[in-house]
Design brief:
- There is one protein chain.
- The chain has 183 residues and is mainly α.
- It has a single domain, classed as 3-Layer(aba) Sandwich (Rossmann fold), CATH 3.40.50.
- Helix content is 50%, strand content 4%.
- A two-stranded parallel ribbon has the order 1-2.
- The protein is globular and about 65 Å long.
- The two termini are 34 Å apart.
């Protein structure tokens, strides 16, 4: 366990109150910001998702969790101003980075994910998929997760990510990787 400076995680009632009032003021000033699902009935009951918040989508297998996260990610990316340095970070425990991104590319190229998973694509679909990959490469979205391909090639077990691992990966992205992107 790393050493924690407890003065950075302990707040007096006065400090907590001051921070809360500042937050309410900021929420008021930015009331039109935040990610909305785009589904009117859902947006009436769900608060807008804001930068720095943890968003968790839980559900049984095949209940559109990944699809919903893709939708929310696209909504977040659409809300980023071109000149800003904002990014979207997704975390996935269940799907590999490849599976998650293939789903994204299939939607962008209008190709059936089932056909891709079965390897049933011809030259026209391959070209559309490559075009979608080029467009995806310039989106400001990072993924924290495991790579099925790299694990197989290196003969590594799939990593068991913990919340501290995720936190450290996000710090890495924000402080090191996004500046020296591998793209």
């Amino acid at each position: 366990m790393e050493n924690v400076d407890y003065s950075t995680i302990a707040y007096s009632p006065q400090e907590a109150g001051h921070l809360s009032l500042d937050m309410v003021k900021k929420l008021h000033e930015e009331k039109d910001l935040g990610i909305k699902s785009g589904i009117e009935d859902l947006d009436k009951i769900m608060l807008p998702l804001r930068a720095g918040e943890l968003v968790t989508v839980l559900g049984h297998t095949s209940n559109y969790k990944s699809g919903f996260m893709n939708w929310l990610s696209k909504q977040a990316i659409n809300g980023i101003k071109e000149e800003s340095n904002e990014i979207v970070i997704r975390v996935t425990w269940e799907q590999s980075v490849e599976e998650d991104t293939i789903s994204w590319l299939a939607g962008a190229a209008d190709i059936s994910i089932t056909r891709l998973a079965r390897g049933e694509i011809g030259e026209p679909e391959w070209k559309k998929l490559q075009g979608a990959a080029v467009k995806h490469a310039i989106t400001p979205m990072w993924i924290v997760g495991h790579s099925q391909q790299e694990s197989s090639e290196r003969r590594w077990a799939r990593p068991r990510m913990t919340m501290p691992d995720v936190s450290n990966a996000i710090e890495y992205i924000l402080n090191d990787a996004s500046i020296n992107s591998k793209t």
